[in-house]
Predict the 3D structure of the following.
Amino acid sequence: MIIGEHLGVNEQGHLTIGGMDTVELVKNYGTPLYVMDETVIRNNCRLFKDAIGKYYGGNGLPLYASKTFCCKEICRVMKQEKMGLDVSSGGELMTAIEAGFPAGDIFFHGNNKTRDELLLAMEYGVGRIVVDNLSELERLEDICIAQNKTANIMLRIKPGVEAHTHEFIQTGQIDSKFGFALENGEADFAAKTVAKTGNINLCGVHCHIGSQIFDAEPFKLAAKIMFGFIERINKSYGFTISELNLGGGFGIKYTQQDNPPAYGDYIRQVSEILHTLCDEIALPMPKIYIEPGRSIAGPAGITLYTVGAVKEIKDVRNYILVDGGMNDNIRYALYKAPYTVLVANKANEPCTYPASIAGRCCESGDLIQENATLQNCKPGDIVVVLATGAYNYSMSMNYNRFPRPPVVFVNNGSARIVVKRESYMDLMKNDV
Ligand SMILES: *Cc1c(COP(=O)(O)O)cnc(C)c1O
């Protein structure tokens, strides 16, 4: 039942992460608590970097999608690992800048960047602004003209491929708030518009087809479509676009049912298609960017809770009430995301106890998981949810004025706080 090589069970029957006893971590830092294994994060970065090296001769860069899990320390880790960074708000941008991340390796995303955000992006000199729509393009052009600067941009394209986990569809994605559609000529029109501007330099095109994808086919299809688009606009509008950003979306293992292929495998398969296409028309391979988020941070993290009560409702169900909830993990409430749940201090016992894990918010839907089977559980036990490194802390919130948990990084037998626990005073710091 234990997922991930960084997790284990020690002699006391306690779950360990990165060689550290989770019960000890709880003693030191309290609950609810996010713990992330820094070694796993770094190793995941290296898998993507190595794959770009192997299949594209190093002509590319993985950009960590920071919306997955963003704080200054992970930006420092990404800088050390020589990753690029994808940010999608002024807040993520400023976190990276404050952490000393090189602005030139930052790509700025978002489907409605404000004028203030674009001003920040130009002030700090981000590497690429990924333009989502024509109004945004206009805002950016105004800034560039006023400041006599040139923005290096990519266009966000909807390739008409949308993928999630085991399924992908080839049409229909035109109904999305992100980017320019190919089917109706929006994308071509955007390229034509950019060609007429003086202060905008079109470096490449971008797509992101979905998340938690287990299949290489939709990535291959999207790459082929995007390559065709590059070829067409280079010819039609005289561009020499040489960058292709294929986004993120690589799936991870949340439960035993999940079997994602190795990340290098997706990249190999996509590279084969692109090499063939380039050979056919005798074009050099574009510089390839990918934007893994979940696949870097997700597997590294766990969340630890203290059980406050167990309600056994006869003939209905058992509720395990933990001291966190949708505040720190909204993904089950949002889209019934599956997770593996265990009792961390009884990790060597069999999983025979059926229960739903509920939080403390004033919402019946405040559930972390329904109909789980875990070790027999009593008040005072520690419940752990696995693979919470992505889209948990970054989506956390203060409903009911619960302070957000801290984040602890473990690395080769040592632990350190990278985000402090919020205090009640923190909750009030902007109240007048
Ligand atoms: C969310 C997002 C990613 C990361 O997606 P994952 O599924 O976490 O890998 C990458 N690029 C863009 C533009 C995104 O919006």
